[in-house]
Amino acid sequence: MIYGDGMALTCSARGCQAEAAWALRWNNPKLHTPDRRKTWLACEQHRESLGDFLGARGFLREVEPADSADRRE
Ligand SMILES: [Zn+2]
């Protein structure tokens, strides 16, 4: 996914350089106010593992296509 500024969105998984297809929105209630959203970007391969990691901790809020992701963190 390429933005107008030429920055590619790459997967947030460690060591992965793949293009991100998904934006995982998450919130850690111990650190963040309820309306705060952190974003991890995930390729098709890592969407499930990153989502499971966040889901197991109760952090995952929404999963959106990466092309709808804005620049909030
Ligand atoms: Zn990946």
Attribute tags:
73 residues; 1 helix; alpha+beta; binds zinc ion
What does this entry show, briefly?
The chain has one helix at residues 47-56; strands spanning 22-26, 38-42, 60-65.
List strands and helices in order, with pairings:
Blueprint: E1 22-26, E2 38-42, H1 47-56, E3 60-65
Antiparallel strand pairs: 1-2, 1-3
The structure holds zinc ion.
What would your notes on this structure say?
The protein has 73 residues and is of the alpha+beta class. The protein has one domain (1-73). The chain is built from one helix and three strands; from the N terminus they run ββαβ. It has one helix at 47-56, and strands spanning 22-26, 38-42, 60-65. The protein has a three-stranded antiparallel beta sheet, covered by helices on one side. The model has no long low-confidence stretch (mean pLDDT 88).
Shape: globular
Contiguous runs where pLDDT drops below 50 for at least 5 residues: none
Separation, N- and C-terminal Cα atoms? 17 Å
- Count of DSSP helices? 1
Share in β-strands: 15-25%
Number of strands: 3
Mean pLDDT, rounded to whole units?
A: 88
In this structure, how is the largest beta sheet organized? 3 strands, antiparallel
Structural class: alpha+beta
Helix amount, in percent?
A: 10-25%
User: Which strand order do you get reading across the main beta sheet?
Assistant: 2-1-3
- Counting copies of identical and different chains, the oligomeric state is single chain
**Element pattern in H and E:** EEHE
Question: Which cofactors or ions or other ligands sit in this model?
Answer: zinc ion
Domain count: the total is: 1
Radius of gyration: 12 Å
